[in-house]
Amino acid sequence: MKAQRHRGPNTEGIFISKTGLAGLGHNRLSIIDLSTDGDQPMSDPEGRYWVIFNGEIYNYLELRKCLKDEYPFKSRSDTEVLLAAYRKWGSACLDKLVGMFAFAVWDETDRALFVARDRFGVKPLYYHRRPDGTLFLASEIKALRAAGISSVPDEVTWANYHVYGLYDHSERTFWKDILSLPPGHTLTNKAGHTQVSCWYDLAERVGAETDERPVEAVCEEYLDLLVQSVRLRFRSDVPVGVNLSGGVDSSTLLSLVQQVQGCDSNVKAFTFITGDPRYDELPWVNRMLASTKHPSVVCQLRPEEVPSLAHSVQAFQEEPFGGLPTLSYARLFERAREEGVTVLLDGNGLDEQWAGYDYYASLNGQAPSLVQGIRTPLTRPECLTPEFRALAEPFTMPQSFTDPLRNTQYRDLRFTKIPRALRFNDRISMRASTELREPFLDHRLVELALRQPPERKIAEGKGKWLLRRIARKMMPTGLVDAPKRLLQTPQREWLRGPLLKWAQACIEDALAGYGDQWLDPVKVREVWGRFQQGGDDNSFYLWQWITVGLFTRFK
Questions:
Q1: Are the C-beta atoms of residues 488 and 245 closer than 8 Å to each other?
Q2: How many angstroms separate the CA atoms of 456 and 119, rounded?
Q3: 461 touches 376 (CB < 8 A)
Q4: Do the strands 435-437 and 343-345 form a parallel or antiparallel pair, or are they unpaired?
Q5: Mutual orientation of helices 443-450 and 404-414 as an angle, nearest 10°?
Q6: Extended strands (E) in 353-394
Q7: What ranges in 370-442 are assigned the alpha helix state H?
Q8: Could you give the strand order of the β-sheet that contains 42-43, starting from the edge strand earlier in sequence?
Q9: What is the CA radius of gyration of the chain?
Q10: What's the helix, strand, coil split of the chain in %, to 5?
């Protein structure tokens, strides 16, 4: 429990079954019902069911009303509502939950464990099963390591990352025999037998048919759901803030905050910058905040902070992360904690719902890149050893829909962009003992958007058509049609400039640890030399090598 105390620094608790078959531990970050009544592990009145829960059930008040006549609530927490819901409906309670969650329920009578993860995997859950059937579960890999599980790299996952740029697309992690419970899945364990099952299938929920209702009817329903989603995510007994960039998504979020809380809302708005006007979005942010009472909190990342911060963030991520944007975001959460804000909302998810990335507008039957805005290859497989390169397993994009646009959206939502972003963001928020909430990943919003025909997403080569139609009525003139900024940080410029020596040292560490095993030293140094001379608009592969160097130091 000490290994992940940052996830819950307020209280901790342990339950050991009388049978000796199960033990549950919990670190609590107090958000709803700050009293000890909300502490975990928590049991029902009879002591049959014991729950540990990471996340939030946003509609807990509505569920509580349904259950109040048959469950003697003793707390005001959403945890107890979850427990009561499971006691009444069993696994069927999952369909009634609006929230982000990973939870485990031990049934003392049946001597069985039930585990579930939310629809999109906002909250993590890792597990390891020994040959004798013993099962270990944790929110982070480091807790499994602390329990004595080995830290052997999964070379297939590392090869997929280096060859295809893939991560978080399957249950495999970067560490051998440590698995991630997939989003929308459950795990049951009884008498040493473990079974993993899908309880939420986005493609199945959406269906094959598109929504042909009038546009205005869809806009009205979607806007109503947006307001509901933001309102639910303000349920908190601690201060809530908003992450604000200058883009349409976070500006839409702030506009919804104004609708929910009124024009006198003084929720703090947090923005990260790097001091480079080519990338910083502060002018757009200031325009958005100009007519509001929201205090602006600007968090700047400086080049000299990157080496130590990268080492720290890597230790918390334990798997590859997204470079300087992730580090900038990490600074933002640190600052939020300093400002006394424990819960933050951000605008993640609208690009995937409404085809906001550039490649959505130019699908040609081929699987599009995992990164937008670059003209050169994403990765450099030629810099790998042939043996390592041969371990990679290509990812086949699901063809769940009849049109390539929705298939790509589904890929990004379920297997690529959203899973990796959620993992990055969960670790950096919890590193600062703060909670991140994703109102635009409310499953009702995602399902409605994914049912829309292509012309409601892309028009005249520009994505987010229907979203812009809604947002235009809520925000200052010009913001809704602002061009999408492809990059948020000067990663390329810093790696060629103030971070060059540090990058060089990391790459050499990578070659010292995995040269001739994973990486071809001659080719890596050759490509690195060319990068330093300019002429490449992509630094993704370079960060891959830096990551290996960070892991070499981390070991």
A1: yes
A2: 25
A3: no
A4: parallel
A5: 160
A6: none
A7: 386-389, 404-414, 417-431
A8: 42-43, 49-57, 99-107, 112-117, 185-190, 193-198
A9: 23
A10: 45, 15, 40
Contact, 344 vs 241, CB < 8 A?
yes
Q: Is the pLDDT of residue 352 over 60?
A: yes
* DSSP string across 169-217: SSSB-SBTT-EEPPTTEEEEEETTEEEEEES--HHHHH-SS---S-HHH
Q: What is the pLDDT of residue 483?
A: 60
CATH 3.60.20.10 positions along the chain are 2-151+174-200
Distance CA 295, CA 32 (A): 24
**362 pLDDT band (50/70/90 cuts)?**
confident
Tell the CATH topology of 2-151+174-200.
Answer: Glutamine Phosphoribosylpyrophosphate, subunit 1, domain 1 (3.60.20)
DSSP string, 494-550: HHHTTTHHHHHHHHHHHHHHHBTTTB-HHHHHHHHHHHHTS--S--HHHHHHHHHHH
Where along the chain do the CATH 3.40.50.620 domains lie? Answer: 204-471
pLDDT-above-70 percentage for the chain: 96
Spatial distance between the Cα atoms of 190 and 285, rounded to a whole number of angstroms: 52
And the tokens for 146? 């602390």
Of 348, 347, 344, the closest CA to residue 239 belongs to 344
Q: What is the pTM of this model?
A: 0.95
- Cα gap 1→146, rounded to integer Å: 9
Per-residue pLDDT tens for 25-81? 999 999 999 999 999 999 999 999 999 999 999 999 999 999 999 999 999 999 999
Please work out, in degrees rounded to the nearest 5, the angle formed at the alpha carbon of residue 321 by the alpha carbons of 503 and 102.
160
What pLDDT does 509 receive?
97
Q: Which of 154-158, 357-361, 468-472, 476-480 has the highest mean pLDDT?
A: 154-158
DSSP bridge pairs for 185: 198
Q: How far apart, in whole angstroms, are the C-alpha atoms of residue 265 and residue 26?
A: 34
What superfamily does domain 204-471 belong to in CATH? HUPs (3.40.50.620)
**Using one digit for the tens of pLDDT, what is the confidence trace for 191-229?**
989 999 999 999 999 999 999 999 999 999 999 999 999
Q: Both tokens of residue 41?
A: 């592990």
